[in-house]
Amino acid sequence: PFDVLVVGGGPAGAAAAIYTARKGIRTGIVAERFGGQVLDTMAIENFISVPHTEGPKLAAHLEQHVREYEVDIMNLQKAAKLIPAEVPGGLHEVVLENGASLKSRTVILATGARWRQMNVPGEDQYKNKGVAYCPHCDGPLFKGKRVAVIGGGNSGVEAAIDLAGIVAHVTLIEFDSELRADAVLQRKLATLPNVRIVTSALTTQVHGDGEKVTGLSYKDRNSDAHHDVDLEGVFVQIGLVPNTEWLRGAVALTARGEIEVDHRGETSQPGIFGAGDVTTVPYKQIVIAMGEGSKAGLSAFDYMIRTVPA
Ligand code: FAD
Predict the structure, then answer these.
(1) Ligand 1: distance of its center to the CA of 8 in Å?
(2) Is the Cα torsion angle 184, 190, 195, 199 positive or negative in sign?
């Protein structure tokens, strides 16, 4: 069995594996796709101490760093089920989709999250070419330009307020007849001169010139009228979905499906830890995921030295 089995090969999982391997304990890492969301990212300009890098490059560096140590990397393997140990100090079991079963004294869950997409024509084609999902990451790339934010919940309205301070103009598009964000955020939004709010609107298409975004279309859900907006960026803020479908019943999740963790990364099950975008820790960012992964790795080691194997 492993001492530590990390599930997920993004920034959080890679950091966790490096920290535990450096303690000399037997570490394995299972990843559906090593690199995680970083693989889908182009410019990264907030990876502190590295002013500019690119997703695929950072992902390659993550893997290279993990391979410096004796870590058993099981890439392109999807975990399908977690069976927590029945007794303290017992072995946890992770069952893979291919039927194989891995046992470990501790498990670190770092399966990340995925942005919910609009699924309209142009969205995929112009991803990283004007279609963005993370205002903290990509907001500054649109300095002085016109953008839309899709979604009037808390994250959409927060994004609109954030972007309004950077870009020339923000069009906020909400499907419902009213915004769903907290009143305090809506009040703040209403004070901003360069934000237009459109409600009861269904985004139907992202337009581009083959290279980059040039606009979007939406349908007014009351009148069925079609409208076009000229702009350079579209921030989709209709939900970040944690990859925890496979964990239901195994560890405590919030109503939104995030793994509940405490300040040490401990989940509701002794010996099982969580880190990164898949958890309740706020602000889904690479440096934060790495910090949380490192923390979970140290917590797993701490658990190992304090727990007598059953
Ligand atoms: P992830 O990166 O999501 O990794 C999850 C890992 O778990 C992957 O290896 C995945 O394959 C694996 N996995 C999932 N389910 C299973 C399963 N059942 N079994 C086995 N493996 C599984 N952040 C920044 O700080 N700066 C940026 O500029 C930036 N830009 C971004 C641009 C885009 C387009 C996107 C999508 C995100 C961006 N982010 C950025 C956010 C950042 O990528 C995430 O915060 C970070 O990758 C989270 O790391 P993680 O390890 O928690 O999860």
Answers:
(1) 9
(2) positive
